[in-house]
Design goal:
With 238 residues, the chain is α/β, with parallel strands linked by helices. Helix content is 36%, strand content 26%. The chain is built from eight helices and ten strands. A six-stranded mixed sheet has the order 6-7-8-3-9-10, with helices on both faces. Strands 2-1-4-5 form a four-stranded antiparallel sheet, with helices on one face. It is globular. The structure holds adenosine-5'-diphosphate and magnesium ion. The site of adenosine-5'-diphosphate (ADP) has 10 residues, from α1.
Length: 238
């Protein structure tokens, strides 16, 4: 579960076409990284996949089912944003449980799922704390916990580490890779950081001005960039 297929997906804001017709297949369980400069359409792509932004043309399929008209919660997708807001007056436990409360999940199930998420994210010892008592990395993990507690088939991450310092970013990169190894969900991860792309991705999608320039494994893009733009972006000077 968790195969994603985009066919002719297009986004216009008024007269401006910011995502040109795009085809892309992401296989179940893949860790795919979208890279590209600021303004190239990474967030818009994610938001369309999540159902937070209407698409202007084309179809999005999840496991062979067209989801164009499905609300975000009906798509089996969770998204983690760059700036995440935790509820300061709630415990870590309640912050993670929040999406399940909204979905009126039975109490016993909430308990099980929050404990499972906390274990994966190594937050077991922090469940009773308020967010204010946590480090930046722990707070970011709580935000991720809130996404994984719904146990979605597809996770979307929009530059989730860009507010963290370099040491924490490195640590979180390792943790996210481990998380993917454990959960085996399909993950799409947006970054403008080449190192993140090269170290985390099964497959990299390079975007430029609303077009996909190239799709490939980190090694393919490094050794056979289609053009100078891709080469430059992937960090290969040749
Ligand atoms: P990225 O995430 O790669 O930085 P975005 O997806 O945020 O890029 O933006 C892609 C393009 O779409 C940009 O030119 C941006 O200005 C434009 N854009 C994004 N959201 C809107 C909006 N709500 N209305 C108008 N233009 C938008
Ligand atoms: Mg963005």
């Amino acid at each position: 579960m968790g195969q994603l297929k985009l066919s002719g997906v297009t986004k216009r804001f008024g007269k401006a076409e910011v995502i040109h017709p795009t085809d892309l297949v992401i296989e179940e369980g893949e860790f795919v990284v979208f890279v590209g400069p600021s303004g190239c359409g990474k967030s818009t792509m994610l938001r369309m996949i999540a159902g937070l932004e209407e698409i202007s043309a084309g179809t999005i399929e999840i496991d062979g089912r067209v989801v164009n008209n499905l609300a975000p919660v009906e798509r089996g997708i969770s998204m983690v944003f760059q700036s995440y807001a935790l509820y300061p007056h709630m415990s870590v436990y309640e912050n993670i449980a929040f999406p399940l409360r909204v979905a009126r999940t039975p109490q016993a199930e909430v308990e099980t799922r929050v404990r499972r998420a906390a274990e994966v994210l190594k937050l077991q010892e922090r469940l009773k704390h308020r967010p204010g008592a946590l480090s930046g990395g722990q707070r970011q993990r709580v935000a991720i916990g809130r996404a994984i507690v719904r146990e979605p088939q597809v996770f979307l991450f929009d530059e989730p580490l860009s507010n963290l310092d370099a040491a924490l970013r490195a640590e979180m990169r390792v943790e996210l890779s481990r998380l993917h190894g454990q959960l085996k969900n399909t993950m799409i991860y947006v970054t403008h950081d080449q190192i993140e792309a090269m170290t985390m991705a099964d497959k990299i999608v390079v975007l430029r001005d609303g077009n996909i320039e190239q799709v490939g494994t980190p090694l393919e893009l490094y050794h056979k960039p289609r053009n100078r733009f891709v080469a430059g972006f992937i960090g290969n000077p040749t």
